[in-house]
Amino acid sequence: MEQMVDYKTNTPEDIGIVIPCYNRPALLKKTLEDLNKTLLPDIKRGCIVLIDDASQDLETIRIITEYTLPFPSNWTIKKIMHRKNVQMYNSLREGFELLVNDGYVLFCNLDSDVLLKPGWLKALIRLYQKFPDRIISGFNFKPECVEEKNRFYKEGYVFRIFMGGINFLFSKEVYYKYVRTAFDNKLQWDWKVCDNQFKDGKLLVTTCPSVIQHNIDVNDKNKDPSIIAPDFEDFD
Fold first, then answer.
1. Domain span at residue 69?
2. How many domains does the chain have?
3. Pairing assessment for the beta strands 157-160 and 204-207 based on DSSP bridges
4. Mean pLDDT of 81-86
5. d(CA 234, CA 210)
6. Which residues in 76-103 are b (16+ Cβ under 10 Å) and which e?
7. CA dist 55 to 85, 156, 187, Å?
8. Residue 232 in contact with residue 115, Cβ under 8 Å?
9. In whole angstroms, what is the distance from residue 203 CA to residue 84 CA?
10. pLDDT in tens, 94-153
11. What's the CATH number where 101 sits?
């Protein structure tokens, strides 16, 4: 068992968030609205990188190019519009490399169809400060195939072996060690990230309960339960 230790709750100096987009304008709009309500105002420097992967939906393009929200002044928004579809893994790699070149030290990705709890970013940062050498996620979904391999604790987080790529948060050092090479695995890049870390003797850490959820109706029996974080709805 890993030793429980106290950890700081100081806000890091900078963080960059990459959001790849492809169609689905209503979901994207909701994600941006949630993000606008939950960004940390006391962070020294923040950046949101929106990358459209050649969307064919005109409303999606309009949202990315024209839709404005009153983000805190310490946060900047960078928009990248692809003319040809390059897939999500390439968009993420492009966004993270941009942040690396701009000198950011803490990185985060979000899908463009997520719901965010008000304290989602602070919760992720708190876990990062406790486990700076790990991948952190706010999406605690529970697929049956790996449920028995989870290691549960009662201090607000869970150790896991694998996790889908809806949300990761990590340092620049972790990016170079576990994430950057995983993009060579293309469509399975997220599982490769987790595998890289696991082979190094480290487990992924997720918030418990979830602070991030796919924007779907959790009561819809026709939805795939493997992409649902069942503890999200009960968390205020």
1. 14-227
2. 1
3. antiparallel
4. 93
5. 9
6. eeeebebeeeeebbbbbbbbbebbbeee
7. 8, 38, 18
8. yes
9. 36
10. 999 999 999 999 999 999 999 999 999 999 999 999 999 999 999 987 665 555 555 666
11. 3.90.550.10
pTM: 0.90
Report the chain's C-alpha Rg in angstroms.
Answer: 17
Q: Cα 7 to the chain's mean position, in Å?
A: 22
Residue 223 belongs to a domain: yes
Structural tokens at position 25: 């304008």
The better pLDDT of the pair 68, 61 is held by 61
